[in-house]
Amino acid sequence: MKVFNYFCTSKFLEMTAKERIIEEATQLFFQRGVRNVTMNDLAMHLGMSKRTIYENVNDKDELLAECLNHFEKCEDNDLSNGDRIIDILKKVIEASTSTHASDMGNFMMEIKRYHPVVFKNNVEKYQQKRFEKTCIFLEKGIVEGFFKPDTDVKMMSQILINMFTSIGERWFDLGYTKQQIPQLFKTMFIMYCRGIATLKGVKEIDDNLL
Question: Measured between alpha carbons, how far is residue 14 from residues 45, 67, 101 in Å?
Fold first, then answer.
């Protein structure tokens, strides 16, 4: 995802103070966990004072909300180029099999546990948008003849989201190592897509994703 590609680049240096704070905070939250990153940690990594941080965000709750918004925008940019379904599938697999896939699940879980107000006001909205975008994705696939015309779009969208969320939040409890998560995501996503694909869709998946 683009959210993790700005560091040590001219792009990062051109950001405003607030943009740099949000970018660095997102990185640290994913790497170390929400609870383990303090505003002091963030200030030290950015080489700026806590006062500067608090001039841009009121508190950690607001910072977490900004990080979620930032992540969502990066996600939208990655998947919003009018691509064919098979090209979108490639991008989803690339994103979900990155080294940050399991970190995203932990990120959401920690917000739910330690910052319930942020979860209710922001994560639930983010999850609803993911559901809506998944519905649009499946509908597009039906129109292209990639997915079966009798696919229950709402039900299958919820199944996909629940599947990804469950793996992201419970991979350790399920007995997987962090290194195994990318392949697990890819395998389950391809199986899911093949299950609702037409013969045309199955062929495209087998030719391009396996």
Answer: 17, 18, 27
Collect all residues with Cβ–Cβ distance below 8 Å to 201 and sequence separation of at least 6. 85, 141, 145, 146, 147, 193, 194
Flag whether pLDDT at 4 surpasses 50.
no
Task: Tell me the angle at which helices 124-143 and 60-78 cross, rounded to the nearest 10 degrees.
Answer: 10
Say how far apart CA 34 and CA 23 lie, in whole Å.
Answer: 14
pTM of full prediction above 0.85: no
- 181-196 vs 85-96: helix axis angle to the nearest 10? 160
Q: Give the pLDDT confidence of 14-47 residue by residue, as tens digits.
A: 678 999 999 999 989 988 989 999 999 999 999 9
What stretches of 144-176 show up as alpha helix (H) in DSSP? 153-170
- Which helix (H) or strand (E) covers residue 130, if one does? helix 124-143
Query: What's the CA gap between 109 and 47, in Å, rounded?
Result: 29
Query: Amino acid identity of 181?
Result: I
